[in-house]
User: What shape does this take?
Amino acid sequence: MTSDLTAIRRTVSRWKKGSEGPVLIGGPVTSEPERALEKTKADIAVVGEAELTLNELLELGLSKSDSPSENDLKNVQGIAYRGEAGIVFTGLRPVMARSIYDSLVPSTEIITDYPLYRSARVYVEVLRGCSNYHRTTLSLQHTCSGCDLCQEGSLEERYYCPDGIPPGCGYCSVPSLYGPPRSRFVNRVVNEVRGLLDKGVRRLVLSAPGFLDYGRDLLVEPQPLTDPRHPEPNYGAIEGLLSELNKLDAIAEGKASLMIENIKGNLVTERAAKVLGRYLKGTPVNIGFETGSAEHSLRLGRSSTPRENLTAIRRLRHAGMKPYAYFIHGLPGQTSVTVSETVKTIDTSVEAGASRIILYRFQSLPMSAFQNEPGAPPASRDPLSKGIQDAARRANRRLKENLLGTEIDVVIAEPYDRDRRFHVAYPMLHGPVVLVEGVEVSAGDVFRVVVEELVSDRIVKGRPVDAMF
Ligand code: SF4
Assistant: This one.
């Protein structure tokens, strides 16, 4: 991630002490490839979708010890590398067609190389890209001439903005980097999940910038899904995927859990909430508000209004899920009015059933419409942002207190390094990190614990009441 530049630099420097071979980096951090290479001292940056680029590099002789020649590298689309005359960027590779994307089979073997894979959340991609092709009108760099194509145009017309404003929410680079959604077929996802369960993975997250976009692309194919609101979710595709996954033994028997990440509030119809609740009861789901002001939301280029998000939270809660509400402080366009509306919306979202408030600080991302805006200062240095932070903290404290005395199922991760009497455990479904005392356990064991003490904002202590498996 872009925020991981320093961690990447440290990793590259350690790596280079033990290896002569080339270092490749990828992910959103490389959407500003020259900077990423300069700061991290890596040799090659892979920009955007990486799979085809990596295949090409391997065919050209990339190996643990060797890099392809500069002559070869300059013909590979989607990379930046250190050439004789400085850093060279070969330009973006077009996003993959769905059929190609869906034919790629991720490894399920490699997971055991990660030390905590039995207790970690393991992400399985079910779709790539985002359907929000609205544009922000808050970018300092671009002026919106008001043609309204991104709100009212056909799916093809929404793709390009005549004023050159990057698509999507102003602070986000997902549509620019990964294009509109392309979904994977059910059997591909099921095979991957089965492979991971066989290796001992316990907590699986179906990853997507918007899970309710799953299969919506199929409803408009061959046109690109560039409308975040129409058509409605593809209920059949979503139900087909979730029901097949729920038939897998470990999931059916409760030995492993299945979760989703983000959904767009405007797509949470009554029917969508019911389908999700049927298969994902008790699991968290993220709803991005980012601001509590309807006008600010529209100007940011968001697909849903705060009111729609509140309705989504009520519906999801009613369906038995644990919605988390996301906000960002320090966004372009933040004023005392947007802050007071955001503070109100934080409280209302808790009343509506939000299980947790997550607050981020605005950071400008390369390839987003706000890429040239300055990042926000910490909330402690900005009275307006501080107002939002205080509201989020108050709300989370109230929610955490409700946890005392409740029982949750957790999976043991590792001994707690600050106090060896305890083990760190993660909730199977939803909740904070739990410190479990005095049990003979090993990584991957699942316990039911009762929450006895709040340690901090993120940690509680729990007493085992039952070994589950
Ligand atoms: S924040 Fe979400 S909805 Fe907005 S553009 Fe990014 S991925 Fe799409």
